[in-house]
Design a protein that fits this description.
The chain is an alpha+beta fold. It has helices at residues 63-79, 97-103, and strands spanning 8-15, 20-30, 37-46, 55-61, 83-85. It is built from 2 helices and 5 strands, in the order ββββαβα.
Length: 104
């Protein structure tokens, strides 16, 4: 697997027949405001107009419970045909893990 950090995955999907070119950033972070509370956040959108306002958030107490959600969400994206790649290929506007943790 190719990833920048164990708590983050950058995913890419491109299908020329469907005219589809999407990105998805999946993060698992511990809240800075509520230690012990973990969030799994998925940010997504088209590659050319992607921004962090499109998101899905799941919250859990405990790292293990959050990891299960993270792995389930990651598996679902890979099953749909997304491929993992380096984060630097994402367009601008995506939050760092520190920025995400401060939001929650």
């Amino acid at each position: 697997m190719l990833f920048d950090e164990p708590e983050e995955r950058a995913l890419y999907y491109k299908n020329d027949q469907e005219h589809s070119d999407k990105v998805y950033l999946l993060q698992i972070v511990e809240s800075t405001a509520q230690p012990g509370r973990w969030y799994v956040v998925g940010f997504w959108g088209p590659r050319d107009a992607w921004g962090p306002n499109q998101k899905q958030v799941k919250s859990e107490y405990g790292r293990l419970a959050a990891e299960k959600i993270f792995n389930k969400m990651l598996g679902a994206k890979l099953k749909k045909g997304y491929e993992q790649g380096p984060r630097h290929l994402l367009p601008g506007g995506y939050p760092s893990m520190e920025q995400t943790a401060k939001r929650y």
